[in-house]
């Protein structure tokens, strides 16, 4: 393209130069010939006129000239005169009256000669010659004037040509300069185009690179959206998408979809005691082990927390059960995390697609199977069966009944006496919650208390029990105390202190007469909130007792972390205290530790005189059990009937309105 443009520009320059050359040549030609055209015609007319006179004179003298030759010269002359009447010569003649008059006279003479030539004699010819001779001077002057006039015109034309030449030369020079400028502009334009092309190429490369980065970023975002950040496993979103695809395949006649749902037993304890970094490392190790266990076509997912899932296909119940056992066994092998050996267990719930309408239903079946496996304890596998749905329905019904129990007046507080070992006098009562359902009958606390904790109802129930017990104890003799159990879930509430203070104020009970029992599990998480809560309760004047002492993870360590007022020896030791030396030794040890630390010891579960004698022998200060008194409503306690005027027809459920006692009235 550049070469073609260069050739065109060169041709343009050559053509311009050639135009200038042609103009110069034409100017030269005009200078040579143009000045003689009109003046030559007038001179020729004069010459012909003279020849006509000469021939006519020769004819008159009888010389070698005939009439025809004279006629020829006359015709030529007449033609010349006609030329003087037209064109540039006509314009030249018209410019001067004398010339016009001369031309008229000349015409008249020639016409007369033409008319008389054939009849003229010698005398007539002489007369005509005289007439013609009279015009010689005028004709000569006309020729001279014509020459001068033509010379002037030629000079003017030459001047104009010179001016035109200068104009054309300037134009040609301008064209040449324009051509040069055009070349420069084109070169500059080409340079700009080259630069633009380079920039465009760079931009294209950058866009291609940015497009690649964007594609990679989109892939990363998609990967992040569908994978767990900690373990790199597919997350719940990808799990659901893959499960739906497998279900569609199964419905279309393909292999069945299989879900293995598992969570880690004891993971929360690892996280709480060893820290989240160790917990994260453990999750990564479990994910790695699960990935190695998976078969071709399986999808390993982390659904959240310590919950994992495996999606498979085409397995029978037995194959699924065997694979789940294999997974569970592999997961149970010890892990090395942060130079620590950690051993955990797991339970697995399995669901195999049959006629489930959607992914949610199949996942719910796997969740039910996992729930069933966990209810059997660590290290169990359950494949979903239809009766599990029935048990779930029963569980939901149980939860619904429990939520309505307080409102329906089905809950009641019973009191079991606590007795001084030496005097056998009652020194207080422990408040125990009882549930009497119109259909289920009496529901044991071991059944409904964990459910209340799971569904978040324990705070309302615990507050109601505390308020009821404090209002009741406020009516008792001042020497009697009341003990109320606090659930670990209830203890972690930030509103606990305010709730206790409010209840004490409303009931009028002296804080020294209230004893709150907590289990060792409360102290597993020895954070500032736990110790601060215990300290504030002590500052109010409330007594703090450790319930079920000896059954926790670090009983003696718990005694060091906080100065309890009372230690309650668990009934599991009391049951064998008369038959097993180790049980007796433990009771004796705990009693001695309590005495050394200035803490009151109380043994629960005393059912025989032999057990009573043993705990009395080792120095236990208080006892509690069926031997000394069964739990009963306050209105049926004989010890209190002598002091407090109870209406026999009024039970504890009617003594305190449920809504008022719970603060919702």
From TrEMBL:
SUPFAM superfamilies found in the cross-reference section: EAL domain-like, Nucleotide cyclase
Transmembrane residue ranges: 166-188
SMART domains per record: EAL, GGDEF
Domain GGDEF: 255-386
Keyword Transmembrane helix: yes
Boundaries of every EAL domain copy: 395-645
InterPro entries: Biofilm_reg_signaling (IPR052155), EAL_dom (IPR001633), EAL_sf (IPR035919), GGDEF_dom (IPR000160), Nucleotide_cyclase (IPR029787), Rev_trsase/Diguanyl_cyclase (IPR043128)
Keywords, sorted A to Z: Membrane, Transmembrane, Transmembrane helix
Descriptive protein name: GGDEF-domain containing protein
Organism this protein belongs to: Phyllobacterium zundukense
């Amino acid at each position: 393209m550049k070469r073609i443009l260069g050739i065109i520009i060169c041709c343009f320059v050559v053509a311009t130069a050639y135009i200038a050359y042609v103009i110069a040549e034409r100017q030269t030609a005009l200078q040579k010939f143009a000045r003689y055209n009109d003046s030559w015609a007038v001179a020729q007319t004069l010459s012909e006129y003279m020849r006509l006179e000469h021939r006519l004179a020769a004819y008159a003298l009888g010389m070698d000239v005939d009439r025809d030759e004279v006629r020829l010269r006359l015709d030529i002359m007449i033609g010349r005169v006609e030329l003087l009447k037209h064109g540039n010569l006509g314009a030249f003649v018209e410019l001067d009256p004398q010339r016009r008059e001369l031309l008229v006279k000349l015409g008249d003479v020639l016409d007369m000669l033409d008319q008389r030539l054939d009849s003229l004699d010698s005398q007539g010819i002489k007369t005509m010659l005289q007439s013609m001779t009279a015009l010689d001077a005028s004709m000569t002057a006309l020729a001279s004037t014509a020459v001068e006039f033509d010379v002037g015109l030629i000079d003017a034309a030459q001047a104009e040509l010179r001016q035109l030449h200068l104009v054309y030369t300037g134009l040609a020079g301008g064209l040449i300069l324009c051509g040069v400028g055009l070349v420069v502009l084109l070169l500059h334009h080409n340079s700009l185009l080259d630069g633009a092309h380079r920039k465009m190429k760079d931009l294209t490369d950058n866009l291609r690179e940015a497009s690649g980065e964007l594609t990679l970023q989109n892939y990363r975002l998609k990967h992040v959206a569908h994978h767990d950040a900690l373990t790199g496993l597919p997350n719940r979103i990808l799990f659901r998408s893959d499960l739906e695809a497998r279900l569609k395949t199964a419905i279309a006649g393909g292999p069945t979809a299989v879900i293995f749902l598992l969570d880690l037993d004891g993971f929360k304890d690892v996280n709480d005691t060893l820290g989240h970094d160790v917990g994260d490392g453990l999750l990564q190790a479990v994910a790695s082990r699960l990935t190695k266990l998976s078969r071709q076509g399986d999808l390993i997912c982390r659904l959240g927390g310590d919950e994992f899932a495996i999606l498979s296909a085409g397995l029978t119940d037995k194959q699924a059960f065997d694979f789940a056992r294999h997974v569970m066994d592999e997961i149970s092998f010890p892990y090395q995390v942060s130079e620590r050996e950690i051993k955990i267990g797991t339970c697995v719930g399995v669901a195999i697609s049959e006629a489930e309408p959607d992914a949610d239903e199949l996942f719910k079946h796997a969740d039910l199977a996992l729930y069933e496996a966990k209810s059997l304890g660590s290290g169990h596998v359950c494949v979903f069966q239809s009766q599990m749905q029935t048990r779930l329905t029963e569980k939901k019904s149980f939860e619904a009944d429990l939520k309505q129990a307080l409102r329906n007046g089905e809950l009641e507080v019973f009191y079991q006496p606590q007795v001084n070992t030496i005097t056998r006098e009652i020194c207080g009562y422990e408040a125990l919650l009882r549930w009497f359902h119109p259909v289920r009958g009496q529901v044991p606390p071991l059944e409904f208390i964990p459910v209340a904790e799971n569904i978040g109802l324990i705070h309302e129930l615990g507050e109601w029990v505390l308020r009821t017990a404090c209002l009741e104890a406020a009516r008792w003799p001042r020497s009697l105390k009341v003990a109320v159990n606090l659930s670990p879930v209830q203890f972690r509430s930030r509103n606990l202190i305010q709730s206790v203070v409010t209840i004490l104020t409303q009931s009028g009970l002296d804080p020294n007469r209230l004893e709150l029992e907590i289990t060792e599990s409360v102290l597993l998480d020895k954070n500032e909130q736990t110790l601060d809560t215990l300290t504030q309760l002590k500052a109010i004047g409330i007594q703090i007792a450790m319930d079920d002492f000896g059954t926790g993870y670090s009983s003696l360590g718990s005694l060091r972390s906080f100065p309890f007022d009372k230690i309650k020896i668990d009934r599991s030791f009391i049951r064998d205290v008369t038959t097993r030396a180790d049980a007796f030794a433990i009771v004796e040890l705990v009693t001695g530790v309590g005495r050394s630390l200035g803490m009151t010891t109380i043994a629960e579960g005393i059912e025989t005189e032999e057990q009573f004698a043993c705990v009395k022998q080792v120095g236990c200060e208080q006892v509690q059990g069926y031997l000394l008194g069964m739990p009963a409503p306050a209105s049926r306690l004989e010890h209190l009937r002598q002091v407090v005027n109870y209406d026999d027809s009024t039970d504890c459920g009617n003594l305190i309105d449920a809504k008022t006692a719970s603060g919702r009235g």
